[in-house]
Write a structure and sequence with these properties.
Keywords: Acyltransferase, Repressor, Toxin-antitoxin system, Transferase. Residues 95-153 form the N-acetyltransferase domain. It catalyses: glycyl-tRNA(Gly) + acetyl-CoA = N-acetylglycyl-tRNA(Gly) + CoA + H(+). The chain is α+β, with helices and mostly antiparallel strands and 177 residues long. The protein has helices spanning 24-39, 72-80, 110-124, 142-147; strands at residues 6-9, 44-49, 54-66, 90-101, 132-138, 151-152, 165-171. The protein has a seven-stranded mixed beta sheet, sandwiched between helices. The longest helix is centred in the N-terminal third of the chain and has 16 residues, at 24-39. It binds coenzyme A.
């Protein structure tokens, strides 16, 4: 991340500036929904800012990964990292509800820097305990997440062209070793 960029939590007294990532839903969320979601305790939004711009934003919520969302082989692999006595039908996670980089700054590795920031955030200062990051990735953004170590929770999604989004997960545990 560039030295003049910083990450702040969106709050009521922050004066939003124009933001365009090329996707209207994501642009509108920041202006219309991010604060109401925060007030209703649904998600928290963070901004990457410079002195002049909103460079990027992301919002996070609590989540879980669970057996019904996963294919059998992937779930077996996930379970393997826990001692047998700790095997469960679901595990706590944090969901990236939205992630968008301003068009002006795309393809400069900032989205990847933000994913790294989130990974570190939940490994080093995890207030509750969650071992996974999840995201319902837009198909157009799949290469971005796969390149950053995210995996399909359901292998069938690789072939399923119809859905607009695909559920991916990232296992945080290896970062702690
Ligand atoms: C998707 C997004 C967050 C990626 O952020 P970014 O800072 O531009 O991405 P990075 O520079 O870190 O990209 C890392 C890698 O991801 C891949 N990638 C990034 N954007 C991509 C795109 N639009 N299409 C295909 N691959 C992409 C590339 O392989 C890239 O590696 P490279 O630079 O070596 O080619 C950003 O482009 C964006 O906000 N897009 C519009 C909104 C969106 O789709 N958000 C995702 C919601 S799930």
């Amino acid at each position: 991340m560039r030295s003049n960029f910083r990450i702040i939590k969106l709050s009521e007294n922050y004066q939003l500036r124009p933001f365009d990532c090329g996707d209207n839903d994501l642009n509108n969320f920041l202006v219309e929904d991010a604060l109401p979601y925060k007030q209703r305790l649904l998600s928290v939004t963070y901004l990457m800012v410079s002195d002049d711009d909103i460079v990027a934003y992301f919002s996070l919520s609590n989540d879980k990964i669970s057996i019904p969302e996963s294919d059998k082989a992937t779930w077996r692999r996930i379970k393997k990292r826990f001692p047998h006595a700790k095997h469960r039908n679901d595990y706590p996670a944090v969901k990236i509800g939205r992630l968008a980089v301003s068009k002006k700054y795309q393809h400069e590795h900032l989205g990847s820097d933000i994913l790294f920031f989130i990974k570190k955030m939940f490994v080093t200062d995890n207030r509750t305990g969650c071992g996974f990051i999840t995201v319902d990735a837009l198909r157009i953004a799949l290469p971005f997440y796969l390149k950053n170590g995210f995996e399909y929770l359901r292998k069938e999604d690789i072939l399923e062209e119809a859905d607009k989004t695909v559920l991916l997960f990232y296992d945080l545990y290896p970062l702690t070793l």
